[in-house]
């Protein structure tokens, strides 16, 4: 077991409440993808006079169904934000697989995106992996206040990691997206993956900041006086906006049951690495728990790959990313 005397004092954590909130969030966000897709499809099939000139890009903004999906996503993400503030990120992050399951099941029911037996096995594997993650996830956190948060966010390893991701995102947005975005699903999805991972990390940091904002320590300056607080606020606003734009572009062009699983897997990969660098949540874990987390995550990824790859009734790879979910 890792000795805790040589590390920072553990922060107060509520993993089981965070788990419950994460499940509720997954249901709301998973449903929101379907509602947004329905709104996009309605715009394509029945463009109105008002949006006939722009329905290929932002005409879905005039669809009530799309806005209902956005409301569901907003509420779900707020709940997920709260979950991240009270529970370790390494617990909450993998449970995003439930979003994939919800969206896959609802896609099969409402978008005619078929789910065969292997896809259903993928759902089961994702649930098993999520359970293993819950059993082995840390119950404590290392970052308990804004002062510690500043130290973490200014760590050179984390800054290098963030810089690489930001540069990669700019390259994708400026160079690749205009050239390949409409025929390669990974372009738009990767933008959403990277921005989503950074937004979650900044969101957890903002949650810790808000705790000190409303209950400030007696011997420190107000949180809002520090530049990092406003950097986190700006990062969350910009990150959410970028995710909305590129997620909807991906949903408009590609199969929902292909977009959401791929987004889940790679967002979690970026998130887990960032969480290790930033919050060091593995400091309180035994070796067997680390192994359990690794096995759980691999099981989830395997399930998600099955869910994404075998969507045709024959169980082969005949469904392509460019296939429309009409």
Automatic annotation (TrEMBL):
It comes from the Eukaryota. The chain crosses the membrane at residues 16-35, 56-75, 81-106, 118-138, 158-178, 185-208, 228-247, 259-279, 291-310. It is a multi-pass membrane protein. InterPro entries: EmrE-like, Mg_trans_NIPA. It is found in: Membrane. Its main location: membrane. One of its GO terms (cellular component) is membrane. GO terms for molecular function: magnesium ion transmembrane transporter activity. Keywords: Membrane, Transmembrane, Transmembrane helix. The keyword ATP-binding does not apply. SUPFAM superfamilies: Multidrug resistance efflux transporter EmrE. Belongs to the NIPA family. This is Magnesium transporter NIPA2-like. It comes from Phallusia mammillata. The lineage of its organism: Eukaryota, Metazoa, Chordata, Tunicata, Ascidiacea.
